Amino acid sequence: MSASDIKEVIVLGASGGFGTLFSQVLAKSGVTVRGISRKGTPKPEATFSDYLSADPCNPNEEVITRVRSASVIVSCVPPGPCVRALEALAPYMAEGCLFLDVLSVKTEICNSYNSLKGKYPHVELLSCHPMFAPAAGWDGQNTVMIEITGGSKSKAFTALVETWGSTCVSMTSGEQHDRVTAAVQNATHSALIAFGLSLKKIGYDAEMAAKISTPPHRAMIGVIQRMASINEPDTYWDIQTENPHAEECWKAMEEAVQEIQSAVKSRDRDRFCQVIADFKTTLGADSKTCSSPY
Ligand SMILES: NC(=O)c1ccc[n+]([C@@H]2O[C@H](COP(=O)([O-])OP(=O)(O)OC[C@H]3O[C@@H](n4cnc5c(N)ncnc54)[C@H](OP(=O)(O)O)[C@@H]3O)[C@@H](O)[C@H]2O)c1
Questions:
Q1: Could you report the per-residue pLDDT of 230-247, keeping only the tens digit for each?
Q2: Is 175 in the pocket of ligand 1 (CB under 6 A)?
Q3: Whether the predicted model's global pTM rises above the 0.85 cut
């Protein structure tokens, strides 16, 4: 089975950001894409073949008819409804139908899949994490794929995502994903949010700072401006509240701030310089993989 063998996809949470993005890319790939969402209408830019206003966790006959003929169901709803929708829809899914989510935190959802996979052996389960906001689009971005019950549909769907220009990276478990995203997302977001808040506290003169900005300052300001303009605080919130390593990340951040501050206060130049020199070891030999923004 190849990417072109995926003919009919249902998107749950069709009124939202990822639901809309899936409607656009799937339609462009020639797939029949059917939206299901509780809200009455999709976003104007959505390109669903048809759109049904219904609750996927409490399916009516129209939902069930669509589910029977679908080859893939993409869940873009929060974790609780995602599991409830799987349990409600699985009895009606065809043999080999693929169910996948796009959730940002994976330990819990993968645990749920692992406890349910024996109950629904006819369903393929895949946990997917697009490492970007829907406004950014797939092209040039990374996507994590965790196969729970691998099979031909999971492979075909992964191949389809790659046709949209995204690099798919396979991971073996939700735990592995959350361990890595604790650095890629939790630590990154918390440093940026704390940076933005500290600017406010010290009375930031944005106009004057822009006139004399340095490359690192412009890079940091650019990222927090983007965070504010995309305005999806729920995603940052979910990552901070649901990743099982979040607490550990905050503790490390507090310790790091105290350590650097204490080196500065005690005029311990060697210690201060060592912290920066150690970045080379932390980042590893392949540190150029993430190219500098300036
Ligand atoms: N946004 C990001 O930057 C980002 C990045 C990577 C991964 N993710 C993950 O992707 C998921 C979806 O993101 P998104 O940006 O598309 O979110 P979104 O725009 O808020 O859309 C979520 C959709 O879920 C549905 N929903 C909410 N509560 C529900 C419930 N109780 N029962 C059934 N449906 C419900 C809503 O549709 P109705 O109200 O119409 O039913 C809504 O359209 C997030 O949960 C996140 O974990 C997000």
A1: 878 899 999 999 999 999
A2: no
A3: yes
